Known about the structure:
The complex is a heterodimer of chains A (268) and B (523).
Chain A: E1 22-31, E2 34-44, E3 49-53, H1 60-67, E4 75-80, E5 83-84, H2 89-95, E6 96-99, H3 111-121, H4 126-139, H5 155-167, E7 173-177, H6 185-200, E8 204-209, H7 212-218, E9 221-226, E10 229-235, H8 236-240, H9 245-253
Parallel strand pairs in A: 3-8, 3-9, 6-7, 7-8
Antiparallel strand pairs in A: 1-2, 1-4, 4-5, 9-10
Chain B: H1 2-19, H2 21-47, H3 53-77, H4 97-107, H5 112-127, H6 132-159, H7 161-164, H8 167-182, H9 184-197, H10 201-209, H11 220-225, H12 229-259, H13 276-279, H14 284-298, H15 300-323, H16 332-343, H17 347-351, H18 356-361, H19 365-390, H20 392-395, H21 401-425, H22 445-462, H23 464-476, H24 479-522
Helix pairs in contact in B: 1-2, 1-4, 2-5, 3-5, 3-6, 3-10, 5-6, 6-12, 8-15, 14-15, 14-19, 15-16, 16-19, 16-21, 19-21, 19-24, 21-22, 21-23, 21-24, 23-24
Amino acid sequence: MTAAHPDPHSDPVVHAGPVPALSIRGLAKRFGGKIAVDGISLDVPAGSFFGIVGPNGAGKTTTLSMATGLLRPDFGTAVVHGVDVWARPLEAKKLMGILPDGVRLFDRLTGEQLVTYAGLLRGMDKDVVASRVGELLSALDLYEDAGTLVVDYSAGMTKKIALASALIHAPRLLVLDEPFESVDPVSAANIRSILDSYVAAGGTVIVSSHVMDLVQRMCDHVAVVAAGRLLATGTVDEVRAGATLEERFVQLVGGRNHTEGLEWLRTS
Amino acid sequence: MVAHLLRLKLTLLRNGLRRSPWQLVGLAFGGLYALGLVGLVVVALVLLRTVDPELARTVVVLGGSAALLGWGLIPVVASAADLTLDPARFTTSAIPMRQLLTGLALGGLIGIPGLATALAALATVWTWARGPLPAVAALVGAAVGVLTCIVLSKVVTTATASLASSRRFKDVSAIAFMVPLVLMGPIVAGVGRGITASTGFLPELAATLSWTPLGAAWSLGGDVAVGRPGAAALKLVIAAATLAVLSWCWKLLLERALVNPPYAGSGSRKGGKLGLFDLLPATPAGAVTARALTYWLRDPRYSGSLVVVPLLPILLVFQGSQSGHYGVLAVAAPLAAFLLAWSISADVSYDNTAFALHVATGVRGVDDRLGRALACLAFALPVVLIFAVGQYFFTGSWSELPGQLGLSLGILFTGLGLSSVVSARYTVAVPLPGDSPFKKPPGNVGQTLVVQFAGMGVLSLLVLPEVGLLIAQLVTGNAMFGWANLAVGLMLGLALFGAGIRLGGKWLDARGPELLAQLTVNR
């Protein structure tokens, strides 16, 4: 997981100190009349396990897509380990492994073919790809289904094979959008231990989720996003300020309905 | 409750249309087409009123039986069957069975096929309006017949629901459906010839069918009109019993389906076989070729066109055998070259958002373009060569071969180059991954049409030199023009192929994210 650092290109925005794994400045995106992301700036320290939380439609996916080179931002920059994603996309994409949410996979390939394809597309050596594919599939409990077409996979298995495709080239930064959605608890634990050892070895992980509990247990840093804006960011302990992350989140985001009314729902 | 179900169906239809005005246009065209057909049928049925009742009865019974058969068979093969009122969605609503059945049956009438059948059936009342009694009998027959059509299709779809939800069945049936569709001409001609050869056979067939569940309902009016009320009464019993038995079957199947939702499982298979990925070079372009070729074989949206191409010469040979001139075969190679080369102009649209993998891995645009074009070339080149050479075994005029080859290869390479540019820039509305190849999704139909026509226009401009040389050869009969055509076709074609890959690759590098955004909208 410790590929040689690419040219330590220094962006004027990046301040002194260690280069963050991901640094975004003023990212904004508008879809038609709706502003999906409204100027988000954020630093993800290298070697951190970073959670992005927010309600549905907060702009998490849009922000991550813009930060990873999948969606061109209207304004703002994204810099990965000192490499500007939109100025030098090919270099930046070598550093990143991406698990996008809500996109299809080439699902008429077998699981094994799909991960191999992801490796070969990145120009990796055939033998390296072959040995890594075997290890990844075993680690993600997909070995028994390696020859099954991805279209016949369950939702959880599909997530896992997409994760394997994102890991194949040993990226320095992993960006995972909703990685635990519809993954069973055993597989989720497996994935978490893989991610933990990846972070321990110096990698950086960004996950988005709306399961606060999971983020509080798993991540060391967190950012709270709502309505396209950044509400809070820092270490998990700083952000939750004594309360649980969930309480703090509801407090920050607001809009909680008090359960008045619905009296008829109280049976007997 | 029945009214609720009908309103639901109408609301679903209306909201579907509201999503895009283009879908309304599509429905309007479909409706006009169906209206034209139904209009013809209705006029024919009205005209039948004045002909000999035996003939009228034969026509009505045969037509009705065919309609019933169609309602039974088409839902099996057309996996695009209308599932807007899929019974599985009512599992949690606790609707009384009887009302659910009535609502779903009447809901089946809403939509183009249902309305068309109902209108045609009602027209038979006019056919038999030769007196009050026959007209009433025909009306009863039409009502029973149309209901039977709908209930039969429901029985078939419910019974095959778990079969039809298995991916393998969908894939195979979609491709199998292509074959009769393409061979429609020869089939119709063959059946037509068979019928004219045995005209005496049809009234007999109709008479026999009228005693079976297929034709009983449709013969009521005719039997009363020719003065056989006894037979009509018996047939009414047959028709009513058919409807009752089918409804009962449907009820049983539905009851079972509501508690046992269709399960489409498949065994797991261990890996170890990388297929084409093992055979082709392990470079980005090689991997794209392997992936694209795998899709040509496994994805019915691609393999459907692979099935059509070998049928092309069969069609042309059939035409040739009809007229005795095989000259029409000369079209086969250029046409196949065009169809195959143009088919990858929608390649990125077929990927849908899976294309995100190409954007995320940062594969170079040139590798992406080259891989896809080579995958198509891998089988298009042999096919075009075989077609080009093969026709001269029928015609024997081998002197035309070089010119023919020049034009075909020119079209193939130029087309692949142009397709590589087009699919790097424009998305078109294509069936989604996993959908039936016949299901055109609502999308930017306008852009689709513009892209298709403009692309074909540009292609015909680019192959003008080859076409000119071919015409020169045909006019002067000088074989030199043929050889010149072969040289020009190969060289100009390859040059344009290379230029197309380059330009497409450059556009893809610059606009990959924008292309992905367009695909996301189409999804």
